[in-house]
Specification:
141 residues, mainly alpha, 0% strand
Length: 141
C-alpha cells in the first residue's frame, strides 16, 4: 500500500470505526460471558465480572492494532474507541435538556459522575492501543 493511501482520511475513518466499535463490542462480549457464566456456575467469582470485559477488550485492541499496521491508524482506532464508548453518556445530557426532562442539573451531574467508573474501564484497552504504538511497524507519525 502506498503512503498516500495508507494515511488517507478514508483509511483513518475505517480504522477509527473498526478499532473503536470492535473494542467496545469486545468489552460487551466479556460482560456477556461473565453474565452467562454467573448464572450457569454456582461458585463463579464476582470479581471476574469486573476484570473480564477490560481484559477481552485489551486483547482485541492489541490484536486489531497489529492488523492495522500503521501508527496513525492505531491512533485513529484509539480515538474512535473513546468516542464510541463515551458517546451514549455525552449525548444523553443535551438530549435530556432539549427534551425538557425533569431536574436537568441533577441528570447532568449523575451522567457525568457515571463517566468516572466508565473511564476506569476505558484505561486498559487504551493502554493496549498505546503499547501497540510502540511495536507496530509502519510509517512513523
Amino acid at each position: 500500500m502506498t503512503d498516500t493511501r495508507d494515511n488517507s482520511f478514508r483509511s483513518l475513518l475505517i480504522a477509527a470505526l473498526a478499532g473503536g466499535a470492535g473494542t467496545v463490542l469486545a468489552a460487551r462480549l466479556g460482560s456477556g460471558v461473565w453474565f452467562g457464566a454467573s448464572f450457569a456456575l454456582e461458585s463463579y467469582p464476582a470479581w471476574l465480572g469486573l476484570a473480564l470485559p477490560p481484559v477481552i477488550a485489551t486483547l482485541f485492541a492489541l490484536g486489531v492494532s497489529f492488523l492495522l499496521g500503521s501508527r496513525l491508524r492505531v491512533l485513529a482506532a484509539l480515538v474512535g474507541y473513546w468516542v464510541i464508548a463515551t458517546a451514549p453518556i455525552l449525548i444523553s445530557i443535551p438530549a435530556h435538556l432539549l427534551l425538557g426532562g425533569d431536574n436537568p442539573d441533577e441528570f447532568a451531574q449523575l451522567r457525568l459522575v457515571s463517566l468516572v467508573p466508565m473511564a476506569a474501564t476505558l484505561v486498559p484497552p487504551s493502554l493496549g492501543f498505546l503499547v501497540a504504538l510502540i511495536f507496530v511497524s509502519g510509517k512513523r507519525t
